[in-house]
């Protein structure tokens, strides 16, 4: 990816748009479709490319820290 390119990908159950070379422009979304639409628009605004990295849906949003505090 070149600087400014936008990649939509799954990250621990959420979808995010990562901007190469500009992490401050990255955003997270609850749905894949919402992230793809926003990623496409962002790429047009930046004059860059947009790609979608496919992944198998998990159906859950995970928080690695929350499991550490649980016990039985």
From TrEMBL:
Residue ranges, compositional bias (Acidic residues): 62-72
Biased composition (Basic and acidic residues): 1-10
Region Disordered: start-end pairs: 1-33, 48-72
InterPro entries given in the database record: DUF2188 (IPR018691)
Record-given protein name: DUF2188 domain-containing protein
Species assigned in the record: Agromyces fucosus
Organism classification: Bacteria, Bacillati, Actinomycetota, Actinomycetes, Micrococcales
């Amino acid at each position: 990816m070149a600087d400014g390119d936008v990649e939509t990908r799954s990250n621990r159950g959420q979808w995010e748009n990562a901007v190469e070379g500009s992490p401050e422009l990255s955003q997270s979304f609850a749905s894949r479709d919402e992230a793809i639409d926003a990623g496409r628009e962002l790429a047009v605004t930046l004059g860059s490319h947009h790609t979608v990295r496919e992944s198998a849906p998990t159906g859950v949003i995970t928080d690695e820290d929350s499991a550490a505090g649980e016990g039985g």
